[in-house]
Amino acid sequence: MAVNSKKIAVYVLVVFALYVIITDPAKAADYVQIGFEGISSAAQAIGDFMTWVADGAKN
């Protein structure tokens, strides 16, 4: 049952994404940009943390 639910959820997500892309490509591009900015910010924060740890966790 869980596998079928997962397949249905993925299918619904793909259909929704295609709907947004087809009906409003500019807004879809904004969503992608927001997503990449979030990933970039997370990677920067992890890098800053690792640098802090490598420096001996000094303030």
Give me a quick take on this structure:
By secondary structure, this protein is an all-alpha fold. 88% of the residues lie in helices and 0% in strands. It contains 2 helices and no strands.
How does the major sheet shape up? none
Q: What is the element string, with H for helices and E for strands?
A: HH
Low-pLDDT parts are: none
Which strand-content bin applies to the residues?
under 5%
Question: Could you please describe the fold and organization of this structure?
Answer:
There is one protein chain. The N and C termini lie far apart (51 Å). By secondary structure, the chain is mainly α. α1 crosses α2. It contains 2 helices and no strands. The protein has a domain of 35 residues. Helices cover 88% and strands 0% of the residues. The model has no long low-confidence stretch (mean pLDDT 91).
Keywords:
mainly alpha, 59 residues, 2 helices, elongated
Topology:
Layout: H1 2-23, H2 25-54
Helix pairs in contact: 1-2
Protein name: Secreted protein
Organism: Streptomyces lutosisoli
